């Protein structure tokens, strides 16, 4: 056995000190803290792949617009709970330009990141019908969304999409919907962490079932237009970002500024509600909220109760970003394409050293390169692999924490530096030698 870059005792003691009994269930923050501790204790730089934080500079278009808004004195004014008119108009235009959907500006509502957007949506959807007390996740997915439901005391069901792609997806979803207790369906597209992308046929099936069983689809577009196998960057020209919005009126789209525009620190997103859903009345909601329609309850009641509005200056930043993108003067995908380049290099290193890609195909097509991908190692469980890699100064989270039933890890490309590819190659060579397949 070759000596590992970091002494095993350092990692094992840190894990014990944090009270983590099953490393496969360690959270992102726990893995991050252990990596930081071990890095400081050993003096060995970690290759950090656990955190889904943008690794690119924030959009200059947004920064300039936000600075101007602050200089114009906007910080002393409460934002309109419905959102700044300029953002609502540009959000509607952006959705038309890059998704091809018509959504009235009134239904484009800013939130404090998509995190607040989904929290509020879960709260509202769980009140639509007393019999529909459960949210359905098409997993794997963002772990914190389930934490949001835990905080709210709302039930959820989940299944791993790994074995249910294509024609198998609709029957699987319907097996839950026909119970009559599902109020909403949640997924991300592209998917965090697997990076699979639901295609138009799958989305058509989801939309049809959502209409048939009257469930609301919560489509998380956190990694907007990051399927780099397609040219999704031409405004008002197909191909467009795939969306369930073409196949049902029961939808809410969550468009975040965090990853597509590297604007995570300002906590800004828009939730785009279909015109029909925005104006729709539900009996249970009418009783609770004095006859307000769905969209107004979402903004004027739930969001208002949570934060009294979204950062005023950040709304002007996102409005400027949307405008420049729709005008074709800001090619945001050319910036985020860097994640695909990193993923391609990282995959080559891992594959060469006997790892495999867990979610490796997308309906017969190789998985796209992007912000995330997944790795496994023959003979190792998720927890064992994550624990072992810490000895080699590599940190990642286990797929089980995302709702996946597969053995493996989520790798995030965002923090990778050019100087680390050679280092990773050397460390994984030692790993493969120490762990022969």
Automatic annotation (TrEMBL):
Provide the transmembrane region boundaries: none
InterPro entries per record? Aminotransferase_I/II_large, LL-DAP_aminotransferase, PyrdxlP-dep_Trfase, PyrdxlP-dep_Trfase_major
Q: Which CDD domains match?
A: AAT_like
Coiled coil region boundaries: none
Keywords, sorted A to Z = Aminotransferase, Transferase
Q: What SUPFAM superfamilies does this protein's entry cite?
A: PLP-dependent transferases
Protein name per the record = Aminotransferase, class I/II
Q: Which cofactor does it need?
A: pyridoxal 5'-phosphate
Outline the extent of the Aminotransferase class I/classII large domain. 56-422
Gene Ontology MF annotations: pyridoxal phosphate binding; transaminase activity
């Amino acid at each position: 056995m070759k000596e590992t870059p970091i002494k095993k005792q350092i990692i094992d003691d840190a894990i014990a000190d944090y009270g983590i009994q099953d490393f496969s269930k360690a959270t992102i923050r726990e893995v991050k803290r252990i990596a930081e501790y071990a890095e400081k204790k050993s003096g060995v730089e970690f290759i950090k792949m656990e955190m889904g934080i943008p690794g690119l500079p924030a959009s200059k278009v947004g920064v300039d617009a936000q600075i101007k808004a602050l200089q114009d004195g906007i910080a002393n004014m409460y934002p309109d709970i419905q959102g700044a008119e300029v953002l609502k108009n540009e959000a509607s235009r952006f959705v038309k330009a890059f998704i091809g959907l018509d959504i009235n500006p009134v239904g484009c509502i800013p939130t404090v990141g998509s995190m607040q957007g989904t929290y509020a949506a879960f709260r509202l959807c769980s009140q639509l019908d007393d019999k529909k007390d459960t949210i359905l996740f098409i997993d794997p997915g963002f772990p914190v969304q389930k934490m949001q439901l835990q905080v709210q005391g709302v039930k959820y069901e989940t299944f791993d999409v790994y074995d249910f792609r294509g024609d198998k997806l609709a029957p699987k979803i319907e097996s839950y919907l026909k119970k009559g207790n599902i109020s909403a369906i949640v997924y991300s597209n592209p998917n965090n962490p697997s990076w699979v992308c639901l295609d138009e046929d799958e989305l058509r099936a989801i939309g049809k079932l959502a209409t048939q069983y009257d469930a609301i689809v919560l489509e998380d577009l956190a990694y907007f237009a990051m399927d780099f196998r397609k040219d999704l960057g031409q405004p008002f020209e197909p191909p467009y970002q795939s969306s369930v919005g073409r196949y049902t009126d029961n939808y809410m789209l969550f468009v975040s500024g965090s990853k597509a525009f590297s604007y995570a620190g300002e906590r800004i997103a828009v939730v785009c509600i279909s015109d029909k859903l925005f104006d729709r009345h539900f009996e249970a909601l009418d009783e609770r909220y004095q006859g307000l329609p769905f969209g107004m309850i979402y903004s004027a009641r739930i969001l208002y109760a949570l934060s009294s509005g979204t950062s005023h200056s950040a709304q002007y930043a996102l409005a400027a970003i949307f405008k420049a993108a729709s005008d074709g003067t800001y090619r945001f995908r050319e910036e985020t394409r860097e994640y695909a380049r990193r993923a391609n290099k990282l995959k080559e290193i891992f594959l060469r050293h006997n790892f495999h890609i867990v979610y490796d195909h997308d309906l017969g097509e190789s998985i796209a390169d992007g912000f995330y991908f997944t790795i496994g190692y023959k003979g190792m469980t998720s927890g064992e692999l994550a624990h072992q890699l810490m000895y080699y100064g590599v940190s990642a989270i286990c797929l089980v924490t995302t709702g996946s039933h597969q053995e493996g890890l989520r790798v995030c490309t965002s923090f990778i530096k050019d100087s680390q590819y050679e280092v990773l190659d050397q460390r994984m060579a030692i790993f493969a030698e120490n762990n022969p397949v």
